[in-house]
Amino acid sequence: MAEAQAGTKRLNDLQTMVSLAKRRGLVFQSSEIYGGLNSCWDYGPLGAQLKMNVKRAWWNAMTRREDIVGLDASILMHPTVWKASGHVDGFSDPLVDCKTCKTRFRSDNTESYLQRKECPNCGGKDLTEPRQFNLMFKTHMGPAEDAASVVYLRPETAQGIFVNFENVRESSRRKLPFGIAQIGKSFRNEITPGNFIFRTREFEQMEMQYFVKPGTDSDWYEKWKKTRWQFFLDLGIREENLRFHDHGPKELAHYAKAAVDVQYQFPFGWQELEGVHNRSDFDLTQHMKFSNKKLEYFDEATKEKFVPYVIETAVGCDRLVLVVLCDAYREEVSIDEETGKPDTRVVLGFHPELAPTKAAVLPLSKKQELADPSMRLRDRLAREFDVAYDETGSIGKRYRRQDEIGTPYCITMDFESLNDQKVTVRHRDTMKQDRISIEQVENYLRDGLRAFHVR
Ligand code: ATP
What we know:
7-stranded mixed sheet, alpha+beta, BirA Bifunctional Protein, domain 2, 5-stranded mixed sheet
């Protein structure tokens, strides 16, 4: 088809992504057949794969460093952990009720409230005073539902790392500076969840705590800011959609000496994607106090004993998936030169490392003589790559289907393939086609995926 490029449109409303995500099996509303559960989402076949790729990229970027090791701590922890961390007494947001429309909202996040003290929903001015609402989910351990059996679903993964500091240091024979990285679920009873998977009550975090000698913390904080910025660029996130937001003295959490957010320009505005924090020696000191265990570090070289400082990097996995989706989305509008009509191609231009499917094998016809060798090729490629197979619909439609889920390569087998043992490889971004030998497909994909950066 002869096409002339008429322009590219980026994502400008979240609803377009919510619909695409549902239609193509990326993300579904949780418990949808029962009317859904507010703020909870399920990852479908392609979404689960995408999320796994995001986690793998982060995990490798962290734990393949010589100075970082991994951990997988449990969600339920000793309740005193949350006393020591300050969460029982202080992990709360100011909650306001509108007496007119009964909307509940978080008053520190709502512009209409902050500026004019009016309800963000109905504009009403009859509001309750803000009262602190603790965001931790409470449950009970064991059969008795009494005060002694209360446990919490962790609101952050970091505490699992702090309480294991000594176990990890000793067992892995680490010297400062070193880090501990962890991926896992966290739970917060958010007052106003929303914006799809941006803010939910159950979510996954990817956190790394880097333990350093006091006095070197400011340098490490700066280094980690740069490293994390580069990580997002390496994933193909467009730099113009990223910025730093430094926390002023009023924004700083009680434990923090310095903090910065990496923000992303979502369709609903600039919002936090990741936090990089200098947590000082707050957490280890608190856990020493509450547990009566020594969590100090002895520096063999200088014979000094001290409580390490911690630089933390904390990013939401689901939030990063949303960034990857929003950033990858584009609509290419072209004019079909034969019909003169505009035609829109929707593409998710994922970095290939993140793409849920790396290649799709498409027999030109469903006939057995083509379907059989195509399926054999699919099975062969699946030993090394995440691949798909699709034999239904016109080849043009099948290409578009793969574009919309971000598959970098389509491999088409036609009747000529049976004679020349070659297939056509079509590129997602350029739509360029190459005819290559069937034997060479793995090499071609390997090279192509490595060199890939067209967006
Ligand atoms: P906020 O002030 O927006 O509630 P926060 O600053 O308390 O968030 P952190 O405690 O620093 O967030 O959490 C680290 C990261 O975890 C955030 O940058 C974000 O990516 C992710 N995150 C936090 N809360 C949620 C949530 N409710 N849903 C999804 N991701 C979240």
